[in-house]
Amino acid sequence: MLKPKEIISPQTPNRRGYETGAVGAVGGQEADGLQSSARKYPSVTVDQKFPIIQFERLKEQSILGRGGFAYVMKARHLDWKQDVAVKCLLTRQIEGSEQEVLYSEARKLNLGSRSDHVISLLGVCLDPNFAIVMPYMENGSLAGLLRDVDVPWALRWRMAHEISLGMTFLHCQNPQILHCDLKAENVLLDGDFHVKISDFGLSKWKMRSRVVTQTSPEGSTITHAPPEYFLDINLVPTPMFDVYSFGVLLWEIITRAEPYGNAMNSALIRLAVTSGQRPDLTLIPTDREDVTSVSQLMQTCWSQTPEDRPTFQACADHLITVTSRSSKEDILQAIIDVMKARKN
Ligand code: ACK
């Protein structure tokens, strides 16, 4: 793994917020301005326009998560008067090939604006370090919500369906976008509890920029990786990798538990998963038709053989039938209940 040449402390991360009297350019200029950054990022291929956001125009509100190489903060854009989430790299100078990967992440995010269920890119900061600016998702991650609240089933099924739609969108892109780290922490929820998939396109950058949160204390996970991944170190991920992860994610949605929560270490999980074991089925309620139906889908998604797993389109077809059994009123009531529970 490449080493950063220099690690600087983040300019803003302190919980008191960013004191700035900066009079910078208005954020969001079109990024042919990338060319002016070409001196700093000489190897970047400028094949897509990104809005450039001036870091000085972002007033830090709080830190949402941090790791060795990156942190995510909530910030207010001083000109837009809008809250944003900013994923900031802590390293000032990085290897040229890695710059490419950062841009590749931003390019993928750029596509997100075309799907209702994939997080979009508002822009990138280039100075002092590279940062990705996204819309702020008021209700945080699905992992946090499941941890806090016994979410009514009507809303759980809507979220499961929307995840399948977001994943269908990513898999339908040309070239195809694989997530490779689909789990409840990477599913964000907007103010109305609609789903936005985030953190897609597992890459070297992503491994290094992992942020640690309350919901992912180790900052990485093998619980959602399929058995074939443990059996062949050279395996190139396929869409079926994500479908397997979706199976485990459905288990998280149904049980609100942590997969393999009792396992002593990750080596045991690898061994168990390769020999066909899966998250605990005894935690799945047996007295509800909708749960049984989603549980069947879940088990097909985590089939040992990748070819036996459904596509996300098929998952979406299955889940629309489950979610359409709830009325709009049921879902609105579910949202009200969740909001009340979160207040307490
Ligand atoms: O579980 P959380 O509250 O939701 O904590 C994690 C943390 O940052 C590290 O990923 C939160 N997070 C990430 N992106 C966003 C976003 N766009 N809006 C709101 N919270 C976000 C995530």
Question: What would you say this structure looks like, in words?
Answer:
The chain is α+β, with helices and mostly antiparallel strands and 344 residues long. The protein has two domains: 31-135, Transferase(Phosphotransferase) domain 1 (Transferase(Phosphotransferase), domain 1), CATH 1.10.510; 142-343, Transferase(Phosphotransferase), domain 1, CATH 1.10.510.10. It has ten helices and nine strands. The chain has helices spanning 96-112, 142-148, 153-171, 204-209, 227-231, 239-255, 266-274, 289-301, 312-323, 328-343, and strands at 6-7, 58-66, 70-77, 82-89, 91-93, 123-125, 131-135, 187-189, 195-197. It is globular. It starts with 5 loop residues before the first strand and ends with a helix. Mean pLDDT is 80; it is low at 1-47 and 201-220. 2',3'- cyclic AMP is lined by residues 64-65, 72, 85, 119, 134, 136-137, 140-141, 143-144, 185, 188, 198, 211, 213, 215.
